[in-house]
Amino acid sequence: MARSIESKLRSQKGQSLIELTLIAPLMILLAYGAIEVGSVISTHLTMTHTSREGANLASRGTTPTQNLDAIIAASSTTFRSSNQANWKIIYSKLVWDKTIPCPNPPTTPCTYRITRPGVQKDHTRGLLVKNSKLSTNGAVNDIVTIPGIDGVKAGQTFHVIEVFFNYAPSIITFVGRGINTDFYDRTIFTNVSGSV
Question: How far is Cα 60 from Cα 159, in angstroms, rounded to an integer?
Fold first, then answer.
């Protein structure tokens, strides 16, 4: 009798070991997938906060250099100097083109042009090869058409922060393979009263 109980216990221990061996890889894969999803969400949130804070600072009169340096320092866990090839931040200023008449009150968007005061290094950070998505070329002096700005009075100035990030999955899982790794976010603020 005692022998049959002992053999039954051994049998149950063996069964548990086999079940654990079969389930453990799946559990590890699910844990890594959850970590990867968390990393993707964290990167998106960081990009959103970076673009919003950058546009907010620019609209209050902060110089482009101070602005970009401040937002990169605040989000240094994502925008590290060691991974500059994976990200780029571009500051642009949209100025009303006075040579093209704007209806008063505006029923169609006024015409705005991209300006980037100062030299190239003053309005960009990061080494990722990306161009601004504000226009076809994203070049200085290009005409910009932005949905949602019709009805804005002529003479406004807009500040734009665009954030590009080439996401590389940190863990090899099924999650990292199924996403678009080119992340993009932009925020547009108008001048705060009294700033230039």
Answer: 10
